[in-house]
From TrEMBL:
DNA damage among keywords: no
Similarity section: Belongs to the ABC transporter superfamily.
Domain ABC transporter per the UniProt entry, residue ranges: 18-117
SUPFAM superfamilies: P-loop containing nucleoside triphosphate hydrolases
Protein name per UniProt: Putative ABC transporter ATP-binding protein YbhF
Keyword ATP-binding: yes
Length: 125
């Protein structure tokens, strides 16, 4: 379970996130909706440990954020995490390599996962 407890983040005099708390249980998906400047990206940056909250805590299954814990969390920002000049296969292999996966296995499993996740298009596009 992801537990966000009373987190606050300020940038100078501006409070981007103010005393925010919520839980996300195993199997749930979280989306945060709001206007520009509402603190959505800042919240996710704190969850991903890119930023530290000024107050409060964030834990996963009772553990403070660390590299092992962060390997269990996925995050796709509004700006897209994909590269337009790379094919689906190139992107999958790039991210697989970053995470230490066997590239031959990732390449062989790509059609299976594209089908399972209903990814439209050809792996070469």
């Amino acid at each position: 379970m992801l537990e966000v407890s009373n987190i606050t983040k300020k940038f100078g005099e501006v409070t981007a996130v103010d005393n925010l708390s919520f839980n996300v249980n195993k199997g749930e998906v979280l989306g945060i909706v709001g206007q520009n400047g509402a603190g959505k990206s800042t919240t996710f940056k704190m969850i991903m440990n890119f930023l530290k909250p000024d107050q409060g805590s964030i834990t996963v299954n009772g553990h403070e954020l660390n590299e092992k814990v962060l390997d269990t969390i996925g995050f796709l920002p509004e700006e897209r995490g994909l590269y337009l000049d790379m094919t689906i296969k190139q992107q999958v292999l790039y991210f697989a390599g970053l995470h230490g996966y066997d590239l031959k296995r990732a390449s062989a499993d790509l059609p299976l996962w594209m089908n399972a996740l209903s990814v439209k298009g050809n792996e070469k596009t």
